[in-house]
Amino acid sequence: MGGHVPASPRCAPVTAADPAAGREDAYRAPVGTHDVLPPESGRWAELVSQFARRAARFGYGLVLTPAFEHVEVFQRVGEGTDVVRKEMYEFEDKGGRRLALRPEGTAPVVRAYIQHRPTPPWKVWYLAPHFRHEKAQRGRYRQHHQLGAEVLGVDDPAVDVEVIDLAQGFLTSLGLSRFSLALNSLGDSVCRPGYLDALRDYLRAHADQLCADSQARLETNPLRVLDCKQPQCVAVIERAPQLLEHLCEPCEAHFEAVQAGLKTLGVPFEIDPRLVRGLDYYTRTTFEFASEALESAQNALGGGGRYDRLAEEMGGPPAPGIGFGIGIERVLIACDSEGVLPTPLPRLDAFVVDALGGGPGGDPEVVALLHELREAGLSADRAYGGRSLKAQTRAADRAGARYLVIVGREEMGRGAVAVRDMESGEQVEVGRSRVVSWLCEHRERLGT
Ligand code: HAM
Fold it and tell me: The pTM is what?
């Protein structure tokens, strides 16, 4: 540990590093960030609740960590990666602390584990914004959101299988089918150094055929060269020595057990010996879900792997770990192109119409009835500002209301209200004291 985190984009001032920044409209969301509004946000709510329910079924609890941490937390992510070296939003706070907005979610969870020492196995999930100063394009943003899970304190390959199953089943449950799972092992501190020597020797011998980036990485982070998509590098990489052929016996046995477990569950996967992932902390199992429905440069829906040394490297107790992060924005783009998880239509059980002409604020009868409906667990709404009956009915339609509950003078004189089924157009009179239970019964029967 220790050492200096190289300078990366700073939060303020916004002008110097990015000449375009000064020309941006201050009252628009910054480049690479997005507002998510209803009804689109309904898909987010659905996605998150599906993940939360699935994670709970697997025995994972929600963990919340701060959006910023001391920069040191991200050093082991690490120094040879773009995520930390080039893309981290680093800043000094008013107290002179060096902080960074979360570029990735694993290191903060490991930091929390070290700080609180929960009893292992510690199984947690999260939904968190992540910040990376990337070149913004479709599927690549400066603020994106990940649904993730981490398990600390167990090195059993059954956990690898479990987290992969958690992620894979989630993507499938959304209706996605055009994606694949790539699997690899990066070995450990026993077998990887020997492999890195062999890889470096090979790459040095072919350095003149590599792109400038790969030439630079060759010495600092040779594994990342395997990730290069430049045509001239791909040709060299194809013939490079493979880590899977250098695994030590325990790593080999672990990898075999993970594959056997996935086969037992019927989780399809392909071994990709060149899957190295973009972060430094990985050991043994690594995996990535790639979608055919996304452009190839941003086709990863999510990925993860083991990081058995990270807790120790961050000054904590030995605690093997494994997890994954799934990019919500990319999953939604994939859902759009596969035509699944449509934006939910607005739906409301009841819309209370003020036909008493109570004016702004509404008649107290309307206000009270709306309150009762909501307290009874129904979704209910109204119009505001003393609108005409026609305008109120239009608003009910827009809100996707199943029933109109019309509070009119004549009906009220009989101690009743009118209830109109917005689908069939049928209208009945229901006693004022019974209308809430009437709607509850009908809602259950109709399943709205
Ligand atoms: P990652 O591969 O860097 O892994 O990010 C996980 C996922 O987040 C990606 O597969 C992608 O879907 C999404 N993502 C990443 N960067 C962006 C971006 N700029 N714009 C939009 N989406 C993006 C991690 O962050 C690890 N912490 C995952 C992990 C958890 N490994 C072990 N535990």
Answer: 0.91
